[in-house]
């Protein structure tokens, strides 16, 4: 059974969005992330993140685009219906049932990208197994600063710290028990 890993990029001042303007995917931290995600069982996305990524990635090229476009995407939504494009399927039923069923069915870990309401809901229901925050060595000074949205407190326990030559630090947390 795979784990559901919530993964996010952040700046020193806590900015997580808009990622595209400041994140630097090159370097040893990018290689590490790429390798992990290329072995994964897919992405888990909320509707807003799915729609944003689907509007961007299909027209991109390169190794990241090849990975992101090909990987299976599992989308939670109460407003979308029918078949989805971009190698995506809707999660069926309540997330308390669909997420454990998905984790049991796929080979490898699943990566949750995006923040906000969906990620917070998964966290409060104990469905996220691990949190990864790639802390980038810069201050952006503007943008969204809430990893799980502006909803409430989620306690976590530090599991690991990995330092990269690029200056990025990967903070890995487990749900606080």
Automatic annotation (TrEMBL):
Domain Bacterial bifunctional deaminase-reductase C-terminal: 3-170
Annotated GO biological process: riboflavin biosynthetic process
The protein's name in its UniProt record: Dihydrofolate reductase
GO molecular function: 5-amino-6-(5-phosphoribosylamino)uracil reductase activity
InterPro entries named in the record: DHFR-like_dom_sf (IPR024072), RibDG_C (IPR002734)
Pfam families, A to Z: RibD_C
Organism: Ruania alba
Upper classification of the organism: Bacteria, Bacillati, Actinomycetota, Actinomycetes, Micrococcales
């Amino acid at each position: 059974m795979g784990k559901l890993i919530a993964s996010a990029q952040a700046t020193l001042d806590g900015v997580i969005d808009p990622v595209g303007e400041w994140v630097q995917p090159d370097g040893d931290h990018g290689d590490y992330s790429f390798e992990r995600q290329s072995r994964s069982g897919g992405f888990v996305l909320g509707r807003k993140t799915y729609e944003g990524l689907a509007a961007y990635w299909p027209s991109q090229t390169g190794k990241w685009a090849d990975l992101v476009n090909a990987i299976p995407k599992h989308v939670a939504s109460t407003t979308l219906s029918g078949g989805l494009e971009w190698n995506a399927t809707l999660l069926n039923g309540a997330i308390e049932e669909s997420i454990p069923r998905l984790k049991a069915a796929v080979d490898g870990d699943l990566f949750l990208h995006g923040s906000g309401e969906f990620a917070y809901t998964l966290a409060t229901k104990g469905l996220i197994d691990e949190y990864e925050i790639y802390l980038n060595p810069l201050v952006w000074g503007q943008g969204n600063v809430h990893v799980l949205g502006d909803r409430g407190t989620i306690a976590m326990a530090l599991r690991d710290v990995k330092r990269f030559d690029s200056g990025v630090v990967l903070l890995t947390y487990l749900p606080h028990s």
